Amino acid sequence: MGFLPPTLQKLKEFDGYLGKEGLSLDEGIGLRWTDESMAYDQTPYDVLPFMDAGVDGIHVGLLTDFGKVTDLEEAFVVCVHPMNAPASLKILARNPKEFVDYLYSDRNLTMFFNFMMIESEEQYRSMVEEGETDFEESAEFAEAQNLVLTKMKEYMGCKKVGSIYEFVESAEEARRKQIVLPTKDSIGIAGEIESGEELPVYPVDENADIGVAEAQGFLASAPLVSKLAFIRDAQYAGLIDNQTPLKGVILSELESLGYAAEVARLKSLDW
């Protein structure tokens, strides 16, 4: 967890402070600390997991854009639902500070757990109302949560978000403005390109394996942005695993590009 930026380090310290009082973020909010070992096949290779929900592998991580984001205080926070692939990814906040505001505001983590089903603010509000009913029926949990959130505001200086739905939509819009080449997972590839530069896109089909020679041929001639989009799309389609030689091709390409952290994460998914 040495990669945690100052805001998340402070949140972790706050969790330690809660522990001395017999409380925790897990009890009050429903999230606990984790590390890279939480990564699943659906976790983008350039996402650093740091918290999970303790159920169905659901976790959040920092998007590094293949190492381009060196100040993780500026990294987008991505939520991953491995069991809901392919609709398994959602950008929740533009940076760790906004993520803390989100945690403080989305009382029952309604967006966190249900983003794949929420298509409007009305839907979100309806789910919140249902959650509040359950919340009121659990006096013990309600008391712990109220106490944790009160202390969290004091310790972290977080503020309440007016509309969670608009907040998350705003984070996703901010991400879209950075994207130079879209990808199937909606995260896209950020960066800069030369005026008029062509960015070929490999037509990844989740129902068709990608041959070694075909993948190597594309990667040999494609610009960096297109290479990264291919890797992201192939992962999202579930085509990179130990049952296909494509994994070796991707590992070799990542190594040649100098992406040591991403190589390590992909190797950690061996099974």
Describe the structure.
With 271 residues, the chain is of the alpha+beta class. The protein has 2 domains: 6-174, no CATH class; 193-267, no CATH class. It is 46% helix and 10% strand. It has 11 helices and 7 strands. It has helices at 6-19, 25-28, 96-105, 110-114, 121-137, 139-156, 164-178, 212-221, 224-236, 246-256, 260-267; strands spanning 32-33, 47-52, 59-63, 77-80, 89-93, 179-181, 189-190. A 5-stranded antiparallel beta sheet has the order 1-2-3-4-5. Strand 4 and strand 5 form a beta hairpin. The longest helix is centred in the middle third of the chain and has 18 residues, at 139-156. The radius of gyration is 20 Å and the shape is elongated. The model has no long low-confidence stretch (mean pLDDT 92).
Spans of at least 5 consecutive residues with low confidence: none
Average residue-wise pLDDT: 92
The coarse silhouette is elongated
Q: What is the rounded Rg?
A: 20 Å
- Helix and strand succession? HHEEEEEHHHHHEEHHHH
Give a topology summary.
Elements: H1 6-19, H2 25-28, E1 32-33, E2 47-52, E3 59-63, E4 77-80, E5 89-93, H3 96-105, H4 110-114, H5 121-137, H6 139-156, H7 164-178, E6 179-181, E7 189-190, H8 212-221, H9 224-236, H10 246-256, H11 260-267
Antiparallel strand pairs: 1-2, 2-3, 3-4, 4-5, 6-7
Helix pairs in contact: 1-6
Question: In brief, what are we looking at here?
Answer:
This protein is an alpha+beta fold and 271 residues long. The chain has helices spanning 6-19, 25-28, 96-105, 110-114, 121-137, 139-156, 164-178, 212-221, 224-236, 246-256, 260-267; strands at residues 32-33, 47-52, 59-63, 77-80, 89-93, 179-181, 189-190.
